[in-house]
Structure formats: C-alpha cells, structure tokens
Write a structure and sequence with these properties.
It is a single chain. The protein is an alpha/beta fold and 175 residues long. Helices cover 53% and strands 13% of the residues. It contains eight helices and five strands; from the N terminus they run E-H-E-H-H-H-E-H-E-H-H-E-H. Helix 2 crosses helix 4 and helix 3 crosses helix 4. The longest helix has 19 residues. It is globular and about 45 Å long. It starts with a strand and ends in a 6-residue tail after the last helix. Bound molecules: shikimate-3-phosphate. Shikimate-3-phosphate binds next to loops.
Length: 175
C-alpha cells in the first residue's frame, strides 16, 4: 500500500487518526485541507467566501489528484472530498480508502466544539447542526460506503481505533 486515504464527515477524527496512522506505518501525513491552503495561499474559509463552494470543489479535486501521486502517505481528506467529481474512484484506484464512521449524535457533540473555522456549519445553532448532519450524511453515505474499509470511530480512544485499523490492514486481500 502506497497511500492511505481517510474519509468521513467533518469531526470524524480523520486528522487525529491520520497522524497516528502515519507514525505507525512510517508514512508522511498530509491533511488535504492544509495542502489546499498552502498550495493556494488562502484559507479554506476565504476560498468559500470569495469564490464559492463550486470553485473550492474544483481546487479540492485538483489537489487530490496531486497528492494521489505521492508515495508513503496517509492523506486525511475533507468531509466533502469523496462526494464530488470522481474523487472516490481516484482514491480507490490509487490507494486504500478508509471510512471513519460515527453516529449523528457523536458528530454533533464533536462539531459543536469545533465549528467556527468550518464554513458549512459555522453559523448553525445546535439543533440546526444536528439536522444538517442527518441530511448531509444521508447523501454522503453513498460515497463514504464505497471505501475499502469502514471503521467505527464513536469510541474516544484514537490509539484503540488505530490498532484496530492496523489489524484490519494486515488481513489478506487489501491492496
Ligand atoms: C468540508 C469539510 C472540511 C473542509 C471544508 C468542506 C465538507 O474539512 O474541506 O470546510 O464539505 O464537509 P474537514 O472534514 O476536515 O472539516
């Protein structure tokens, strides 16, 4: 395996798990959002505010193609990455995709504490946020479920989750 792509909703723990996984695998860690910000010299929130979501998705797709050429990397993607263009296909063709799955309630609890820098949810009240999660996840699950591996990350122990992932990666028939 040359690349591990972590996918899942905002707040599902992709960055935390990704960093630990990179260490365990001896890989480099790339956060796609940060990669986009560095390559475009602009914060995600500013890209959304100045150019709109469509432009962001276009940039995100191009950046995904770039990082899909790097070797020995764990890539934490944005919550929407798998759901636009043929991004899910790109990830499955170029590495192993892993979906970090959480319940709506767990996502809502986590996101309530970390919504200010996320343009899609920053102005939502608690109940609006839960409705947004339910609605958006129904649509996104179709894409997330195309991942090669799905891991339940409701548990709050990243180390435990990573050990579970490692044990799954050791099973035969993974590329
Ligand atoms: C988004 C998730 C964000 C970021 C952007 C859009 C989404 O990444 O890419 O704000 O559509 O779910 P995180 O999942 O890392 O928060």
């Amino acid at each position: 395996m040359k690349r591990l792509f972590l996918i899942g909703f905002m707040g599902s723990g992709k960055t935390t798990i990704g960093k630990i996984m990179a260490e365990k695998l001896g890989f480099s860690f790339i956060d796609l959002d940060h990669y986009i910000e560095n390559r475009n010299c602009k914060k995600i929130a500013d890209i959304f505010a100045e150019s709109g979501e469509d432009t962001f998705r276009d940039i995100e797709h191009k950046m995904l193609l770039e990082v899909s050429q790097l070797e020995g990397v764990v890539i934490s993607t944005g919550g929407g990455t798998p759901c636009f263009y043929n991004n899910m296909e790109i990830m499955n063709e170029n590495g192993l995709s892993l979906y970090l799955k959480l319940s709506n309630e767990a996502l809502s609890n986590r996101l309530n504490k970390a919504k200010t820098f996320r343009p899609l949810i920053k102005d939502k009240t608690d109940s609006e946020l839960l409705d947004f999660i339910k609605e958006t996840l129904t649509h996104r699950e179709k894409f997330y479920s195309q991942a090669s591996l799905t891991i339940d990350n409701d548990d709050d122990s990243p180390e435990k989750t990573c050990n579970l992932i490692i044990s799954q990666l050791k099973q035969p028939a993974q590329n």
